[in-house]
Design a protein that fits this description.
There is one protein chain. Helix content is 39%, strand content 21%. With 539 residues, the protein is α/β, with parallel strands linked by helices. The radius of gyration is 29 Å and the shape is globular. It starts with 9 loop residues before the first strand and ends with a helix. The relative contact order is 0.10.
Length: 539
């Protein structure tokens, strides 16, 4: 297997890309080798997805070229969830190897002919040979293994794509990208909308994969588990580093510190020289020394830090909290004939940071809505402690922004009870990366990530001691996800959290509650400890 990929490299030579007058990146020279997994990172708008489009030929660079040997088959994770609605799941997956699918269609058409000629027989023989070479006889079995690995039943293979849910389509398109051992796999955010078990399966699959994998992701745990290299898009450059995301992050932070320390030493030397010159330039006995130091000063420059495209918002919460927090007793809820919650009970104390997990995201969202009194339970009760104050981050924030003509400044002002001056609000929004004229943008035109930052700004103004967050990192870049992660780790109050981000679950939660079809499983400990416990107990 390894020999097959030995010389199958991708070469990027002098690639630059400009949109209008803006340069996304320039003079890029990289080499992607088989057997490695490359994680592409960068701030929102840096050009990560665009770079993938250049690699797969969907977009032509302004300068330079991408060279891929003609014998290689590249597979790209499709983003259009409706493109295959006319096909079965099995056909959709096999289309991951388009040549194999075409052969299958051609064979079927040949064998269906009533006037099957000798020429048809020769062609059929050639097609059968290529079909076998492409592992066609195992195509259905291989497709089945992929969807079962991603948590879907084998029976789904024979259903129409149009009949599947959005999350099911995501998994089928991922199976399509992985089907048939492609030489190169390009994936843009493959873990989006995947459940935890499916992400773990994908990590295992890619860890054992012998081809070349290039992936854009905001999932730090995923990048750490699968990546051998990090491709960083910043400063209008694309650089490649050996190691996973954590290694890159720690190295980059260290380099920034070293540069700052070096600059500080140079700045101190300049200040010393300026002081000397000012003191002694009028002194005849010291004039030679002053002149020599002025020359030295002229040659001494301070290296400025490059203007990075990365910006880290500040997310932090202040609070006070009493002993009693929340008592939930026997809550049940059925929606459209489906029982989402069944006799869910738990009690929260003042030190609890709870990760809510489970196969049904809808069930967790419903529980949060009930606790925030947006929905009524069919059965059961809950009671918040007298001293508790809650802030809620819903998975769907559209009600806060759609059809709202307010500017960001006016929108945030309605939630500020302590100080409504523009100076205070400007400073506050600046910490959330809204500066200058940005604060006058209508909230209804904001991007997904900008709306999320607005929601966090709103939460921070409340100074609540209990936070309920339903998948808060959706739409955020790595820098903002890191800020959310740090803010929740440092928060001294109670957290109820639902997330796909493994790193946040592991570093924030000290208790796990899994919502199951017949109640819930409640365990103290970290997320990793819970996964080990489940595996050991066959849960």
């Amino acid at each position: 297997m390894i020999e097959r990929y030995k010389y199958n490299m991708i070469t990027v030579s002098n690639v630059s890309l400009q949109f209008g007058g803006d340069t996304l990146f320039k003079n890029v020279d990289l080499q992607f080798n088989p057997g490695n997994c490359y994680g592409v990172i960068g701030a929102n708008g840096a050009g990560k997805s665009t770079f993938l489009k250049i690699l797969c030929g969907q977009l032509k660079p302004t300068t330079g070229e991408v060279t891929i040997p003609k014998n290689l088959r590249m597979s790209v994770l499709k983003q259009d969830h409706f493109a295959y609605d006319a096909y079965t799941v099995l056909d959709t997956i096999i289309m991951g190897n388009q040549r194999l699918y075409d052969i299958m269609q051609q064979k079927d058409a040949l064998y269906a002919k009533e006037d099957f000629t000798e020429e048809d027989g020769i062609l059929a023989s050639e097609l059968e040979a290529e079909f076998a070479e492409l592992d066609g006889w195992e195509a259905e079995a291989n497709a089945s293994k992929l969807i079962q690995g991603l948590g879907l039943p084998e029976s789904l293979l024979y259903q129409q794509m149009a009949d599947l849910s959005g999350n099911e389509k995501v998994k089928v398109l991922l199976a399509q990208a992985l089907f048939g051992n492609p030489d190169i796999i390009l994936m843009d955010e493959p873990t989006n909308h995947l459940d935890i078990d499916a992400i773990a399966w994908l990590e295992d699959f890619l860890s054992e994969y012998f081809g070349t994998v290039i992936v854009v992701s905001h999932d730090r745990h995923f990048l750490n588990d699968v990546c051998t290299h990090i491709v960083d898009i910043d400063y209008t450059k694309i650089k490649m580093y050996v190691g996973n995301y954590d290694f890159w992050y720690e190295s980059s932070q260290m380099m920034q510190r070293l540069i700052k320390q070096q600059n500080k030493k140079v700045e101190d030397k300049i200040a010393e020289l300026k002081t000397f010159i000012a003191r002694f330039s009028a002194n005849k006995s010291k004039s030679k020394q002053a002149t020599s130091r002025r020359k030295l000063l002229d040659n001494l420059t301070v290296e400025e830090l490059p203007a990075s495209s990365r910006r880290y918002p500040f997310i932090g919460f202040d609070m006070e909290l009493g002993k009693e927090v929340l008592q939930v007793s026997g809550i049940s809820k059925t929606v459209d004939g489906v029982k989402l919650l069944d006799n869910v009970s738990f009690t929260l104390g003042r030190t609890d940071k709870v990760a809510f997990i489970g196969e049904s995201e809808q069930a967790i969202t419903m529980l949060f809505k009930i606790l925030m009194e947006e929905e009524e339970p069919d059965e059961g009760t809950f009671k918040w402690g007298v001293s508790t104050s809650t802030s809620y981050f819903p998975v769907d924030n559209s009600a806060y922004f759609n059809d709202n003509d307010d500017s960001i400044l006016d929108w945030i002002r309605q939630y500020s009870t302590a100080d409504e001056t523009e100076t205070f609000l400007r400073g506050f929004l600046g910490r959330m990366l809204f500066s200058g004229d940005d604060i006058y943008k209508p909230v209804k035109v904001l991007s997904g990530g900008e709306k999320v930052r607005c929601m966090f700004a709103r939460m921070m103004l409340f100074h609540s001691n209990v936070l309920l967050l339903d998948r808060p990192t959706n739409h955020l870049d790595l820098e903002s996800i890191t800020a959310v992660n740090n803010g929740l780790v440092n928060f001294k109050g109670v957290v109820l959290l639902s997330s796909h981000d493994h790193e946040i679950l592991e570093t924030v939660a000290n208790r796990i509650i899994e919502i199951t079809p017949d109640g819930c499983i409640d365990r103290q400990g970290t997320y990793e400890e819970y996964l080990v416990w489940k595996k050991e107990n066959g849960k």
